[in-house]
Design brief:
This is Inositol-3-phosphate synthase. By secondary structure, the protein is α/β, with parallel strands linked by helices. It folds into 2 domains: about 300 residues, NAD(P)-binding Rossmann-like Domain (Rossmann fold, 3-Layer(aba) Sandwich), CATH 3.40.50; about 110 residues, Dihydrodipicolinate Reductase, domain 2. It is built from 18 helices and 11 strands. The N terminus is likely disordered.
Length: about 450
Amino acid sequence: MSTSGTASPQAADITPAKGKLGIMIPGMGAVATTLIAGVEAVRRGFAKPIGSMSQMGTIRLGKRTDDNTPLIRDWAPLADLNDIVFTGWDIFGGNLFDAAKTAGVLDRDQLESMRPFLESIEPMPAVFDQRWVKRLDPKVQKIGKNKCDLANQIRNDIAEFKSKTDRQVMIWCGSTEIYIEPKPVHMTLEAFEKGLVEDDPDIAPSMLYAWACLKEGIPFANGAPNLTVDIPALQELSKKMNAPICGKDFKTGQTFIKTVLAPAFKTRQLGVSGWYSTNILGNRDGEVLDDPDNFKTKEVSKLGVLEHIFQPEKNPELYGDIFHKVRINYYPPRGDNKEGWDNIDIFGWLGYPMQIKVDFLCRDSILAAPLALDLCLFMDLAARTPTLRGLGIQEWLSFYFKDPDTAPGVYPEHDLFIQSMKLKNTLRHIMGEDLITHLGLEYYGD
């Protein structure tokens, strides 16, 4: 809608969000069950969707003096929460009520109030390979003669879900896989599909889900730091099938705070000599990340943030010698309630040192669930928008990720506020509204 109340030509090109939106989730553990139970609680009027920009965020249209700031969900053609249907895959069996109890994020009374709904969703057996996630022992999993067979089993699951829904999105909420660099099998779609048949060891389970999803023309988002779609083969498939992809690794706790504080230091030209970050976490994610190979994947994702914000090569006197350390420690008593502790050594005028300490006692899945919801709704919007779906990578969704995807040769924006402006300006653009630059000269003089 334009500010005049009539649809602009761009907005008129967006396919309406009619019918059911199916959300498919590989890995139905703490984040997935918190997302699904939370959406149901909001639908029933039990709770508010706090933390969700798509549901509670506003967007300014026109000048500040126009006083035109609608809720995003009332203005943009997003799917309605009542039209969402969930399915997914997991390795532990049981229904979502059992999974949510095991995750221990939501209290028992809240879960009991939605018990029939949660019991009605039973995950399908997942594709799993213990080489990629060593600390988990599956109770149920798909069996196939090779990775091509397994990937096609996922496609069959998707096809069945397609018959029950009108549009679909997939979001990976599974565990962090071990760290790998791109290999020859990842370089072209032809090489990748040949590798599926040949059971190539460098094709991860998450890549099977992504390939199956993109083959079906469905958007794919990645909540973990796995390589997954950050390879030429699947980026090629994304563009070929007009199926959007985006970044990886939900920006929830410690990194969220980092992308707020680091831009503040840079904007004020304050130097940083060291940034030590440690976490204690007791949920399944913490158990998986206790393995060094899996932690390496997370570490790379978390370490890149400061380098891109501070640009030490352009600001050597302020950030050229920064010491950045990240640690994650598995501590079972903490459960899903993670503690992220940061010690930041900064220096100011004439080089005098100062320190900042941050102790963020956060709830990991409570922070992640609204991000997952927004990503599903915005990726569905991208798939219905001609100017976005053919791009492949949706850089405008960088706001949600520790490790945003960008076009080759383009560095990612990590500053949370630049990311927020990018997201809202993209929405304005596809809806035919004027972009907001915050220049503000129009309020002064003739």
